[in-house]
Amino acid sequence: MKRRDRTLITHAGNNPKANKGIVNPPVYHASTILFDSVEDMHARGRDKFNNVYYGRYGTPTTFALEEAVAALEEADKAVAVPSGMGAIAGALLSFLSAGDHVLVVDTAYEPTRFFCDSQLKRFGVETTYYDPLIGAKIADLIQPNTKIVYLESPGSHTFEIQDVPAIAAAAHAKGCVVILDNTWASPLYFKPYRHGVDIVVHAATKYLVGHSDVMMGIITMREEFYKQVKTQVHGMGFAVGGDDCYLALRGLRTLSARLAQHQESALTLAKWLKDRPEVERVLHPALPDNPGHKLWKRDFLGSSGLFGVVLKPASTERVNAMIDGMELFGLGFSWGGYESLMVPSNLKTARTATKWEAGPTVRIHAGLEDPQDMIEDLARGLDRLRGN
Ligand SMILES: *Cc1c(COP(=O)(O)O)cnc(C)c1O
Q1: How distant, in Å, are the alpha carbons of 127, 149, 174, 364 from that of 101?
Q2: Are strands 101-105 and 126-130 parallel, antiparallel or unpaired?
Q3: Is the dihedral of CA 125, 162, 347, 330 positive or negative?
Q4: What is the pLDDT of residue 261?
Q5: Closest alpha carbon to 112 in 16, 218, 203
Q6: Is the N or the C terminus of the chain less surrounded, counting Cβ atoms within 10 Å?
Q7: Would you state the pLDDT for residue 222?
Q8: Is 212 in the pocket of ligand 1 (CB under 6 A)?
Q9: What is the rounded distance in angstroms from the CA atom of residue 139 to the CA atom of residue 153?
């Protein structure tokens, strides 16, 4: 039976009947797994990625989390890894060899770019960055040795929406694997497999965990790529602890309720900010006047709590005074927890294929506080920006 998303979020991966009726799966702490016989050991080893075989390959706690995320994303399989960056590195390295070429969106998460420009380069893989708005014209950039087209939509800090189906179709026509970072929307608000994506990476650290207390990454995929990805990530030694998997699964159970509130609060703040005289524009794809709005509306099922604000020209000193004095908006990396955040966006060095010409830009994560308190905090912040 096809279950709807909120039902999946509530029950997928749980099996109380196998567990004395206890609602949540137990936390297994395991390295050694004992076998009944040598024959049993060999038999389980032949299918070690789908079995309890050795701690590094996962336990029933890991499998419960992976099963739940895969179901929600409409993927066949998921693999949990120790961080979002681990998911990105693991997914890319699963398909790349020396001499290959990869196309990466210019607005990718900055550490993704760093990974391509340093580690991938060192192993003889060349990266070309492309305009997030390129659409089907990506075909012109695909070389005979291009193995992967990598997407992240909306883009980090500037929130451009990519035409995922057009890019995926062009990539597939030339035999490339399509990988997408779906952290912003989470598996709830964007369904990559409906739009031609082959592999999805998540910083589960953000909305899936949702409480700012665990580093976790998830790679989801179709069955055909499972063995290749799992071989790669476990070959690199990536393994996640049972306690962290438990916390991620516990976070996932409330994803639909949290995300609905993040969405509503972010839109409330974005609309309020848009009308302020200190603000040049708001970078939020769910606002109708946003350049990416049409594509967002066509492909996405919702928007999350993270968006950008371009300010009218102001000195760094005044922008810093605004940020430093915020009471409810913490200054720090990561996002997707229950609390609000505000960080300055450094876009001068983060783009190479496209230009970003705009005033000082900040990124806001709307947490679960009362939006009216957040607005009052922002109003005092804008007073400091003006020098009052
Ligand atoms: C945070 C983030 C990552 C990296 O996740 P970590 O768990 O911090 O390694 C990857 N992609 C996006 C879009 C992110 O925001």
Answers
A1: 6, 9, 13, 34
A2: parallel
A3: negative
A4: 98
A5: 203
A6: N
A7: 95
A8: no
A9: 19
Q: Which is it for strands 146-152 and 126-130: parallel, antiparallel or unpaired?
A: unpaired
- Bridge partners of residue 200, in order along the sequence: 180, 220
Which residue is associated with the tokens 């779906």?
182
Domains of the chain, start order: 5-252 (3.40.640.10), 255-386 (3.90.1150.10)
Positions in the chain whose pLDDT score sits under 70: none
Q: Which residues of 50-79 are buried (b: 16+ CB within 10 A; e: fewer)?
A: eebbbbebbbbbbbbbbbbbbbbbbbebbb
- Cα–Cα distance, 330 to 314 (Å, whole number): 21
Residue-wise pLDDT tens digits, 47-61? 888 889 999 999 999
Q: Where are the alpha helices (DSSP H) in the chain?
A: 5-11, 38-46, 60-73, 84-93, 110-115, 121-122, 164-173, 186-189, 223-235, 242-252, 255-274, 293-299, 316-324, 371-386
d(CA 331, CA 140): 41
Tokens in use for 232?
Answer: 């790669």
> Does residue 205's CB lie within 6 angstroms of at least one atom of ligand 1?
yes
What is the model's pLDDT at position 321?
98
**Does the beta carbon of 5 sit less than 6 angstroms from any atom of ligand 1?**
no
Q: Is ligand 1 within 6 A of the CB of residue 304?
A: no
Q: What is the pLDDT of residue 2?
A: 83
Give the per-residue pLDDT at 260.
Answer: 98
End-to-end CA distance of the chain: 60
What pTM does this model have?
Answer: 0.97
CA 21 to ligand 1 center in whole angstroms:
36
8 Å CB contact between 152 and 200: no
Q: Take residue 379 and report the two structure tokens written for it.
A: 């109003």
Report the pLDDT value the prediction gives residue 216, as an integer from 0 to 100. Answer: 98
Q: How many CB atoms lie within 10 A of CB 318?
A: 16
Q: How far is CA 380 from CA 2, 128, 329, 345, in A?
A: 48, 43, 12, 20
Q: What is the dihedral of CA 286, 292, 298, 301, to 10 degrees?
A: -40
Closest among 337, 326, 335, 310 to 374, alpha carbons compared: 326
Among 83, 85, 244, which is best to mutate for testing ligand 1, by the most ligand atoms less than 8 A from CB? 85
pLDDT in tens, 130-159: 999 999 999 999 999 999 999 999 999 999
Are the C-beta atoms of residues 216 and 60 closer than 8 Å to each other? no
